[in-house]
Design goal:
The complex is a heterodimer. By secondary structure, chain A is an all-beta fold. Helices cover about 0% and strands about 60% of the residues of chain A. In chain A, the strands form two sheets. In chain A, strands 2, 4, 5, 6, 9, 10 and 11 form a seven-stranded mixed β-sheet that branches. A four-stranded antiparallel β-sheet of chain A has the order 1-3-8-7, with no helix packed on it. In chain A, strand 9 and strand 10 form a beta hairpin. The termini of chain A are far apart. By secondary structure, chain B is mainly beta. Chain B is built from no helices and eleven strands. The interface between A and B is medium-sized, with 20 and 24 residues.
Chain lengths: ~120, ~110
């Protein structure tokens, strides 16, 4: 059973860069079967797909955030990470890491528990 | 981006009722549509993928239908644990997008 756990600061100052890490257990970030994904949820905009990284290092980002976002993977720690620069109050959200899967049972997203990030001025 | 529009935004129902939530995509997405249930303070839980394929462990009172641009989630014989917020999501093309949610409340 693959499990995901987000970690990082709960409070970030305006204009600074958010760094979040997702630790994967029960599976490997080096697997070629998954896309390692970040999604956020805000009261205003709801659920927003941020982007993913594949084991090869290939990334795909939401164009609305592409100029500020970076997703990377650390195979030695079995983790993948999100960086979001120039944070503003609009970036206050619960950030989820997730695993996008297509297997014999079909397509699905498997989510971490989420990490609340508040941007302060 | 593909816009996903859910209706209604909120819904009141009683235990044992049958309810239907609608999701419309701004362009054709075939059957690349997923449904999630979310309870307060928790991550979304996957219910259905491919518009109508129930995920493992999801009760059979949940069902999904549709293809193209119009989709429905139906919950039959509502149980107390079903009162939550429901979201649709398209995975036809990136960026994946979600509906705004439907809050199902007890009448």
């Amino acid at each position: 059973q693959v499990q995901l756990l987000e970690s990082g600061p709960g409070l970030v100052k305006s204009s600074e860069t958010l760094s979040l890490t997702c630790t994967v257990s029960g599976g490997s970030v080096s697997s070629n079967s998954y896309y390692w994904t970040w999604i956020r949820q805000t009261p205003g905009k709801g659920l927003e797909w941020i982007g993913y990284i594949y084991f090869s290092g290939y990334t795909k980002y939401n164009p609305s955030l592409e100029s500020r976002v970076s997703i990377s993977v650390d195979t030695s720690k079995n983790q993948f990470s999100l960086k979001l620069s120039s944070m503003t109050a609009a970036d206050t959200a619960v950030y989820y890491c997730a695993r996008e899967v297509m297997d014999s049972s079909g397509w699905y997203l498997s989510w971490g528990q989420g990490s609340l990030v508040t941007v302060s001025s | 981006d593909i816009q996903m529009t859910q209706s209604p935004s909120s819904l009141s129902a009683s235990i044992g009722d049958r309810v239907t939530i609608t999701c419309r995509a701004s362009q054709v997405i075939s059957n690349y549509l997923a449904w999630y249930q979310q309870k307060p303070g928790k991550a979304p839980k996957s219910l259905i993928s491919a518009a109508s394929r129930l995920r493992s462990g999801v009760p059979s009172r949940f069902s999904g239908s549709g293809s193209g641009t119009d989709f429905t989630l139906t919950i039959s014989n509502l149980q107390p644990e079903d009162f939550a917020t429901y979201y649709c999501q398209q995975y036809n093309s990136y960026p994946y997008t979600f509906g705004q949610g439907t809050k199902l409340e007890i009448k």
